[in-house]
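Sequence only, no structure available. Ideas?
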Amino acid sequence: MKLEDLQKIALTEHEYRSTYKYMINVCCGSVCGNLGALNILKEFETVVKETGAEKLCKISQAGCIGICSSGPVILIEPGDYIYEKVTVENVKYII
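Reply:
I predicted one. Tokens follow.
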């Protein structure tokens, strides 16, 4: 892959991310996944729709964020806010 190809990919990703105010990354690595991360991901999608925040928030399934002992983990950008030991019940308070 050439440098120009990587620059195009980076620009595309930047443009995509700039359409949302917040990127909510739900860790779905093996530990967080075993602790219910997919249910948390679905709850984020539900709450975002219910609150009308679809144009503000992009919910994404992320790989391991690296804090496995504190899972499930949520990373919200910008600001790099990290929420640890998140439950389905916590989601409405995070949004």
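The beta strands are 22-27, 57-62, 74-77, 81-83.
Hope that gets you unstuck.
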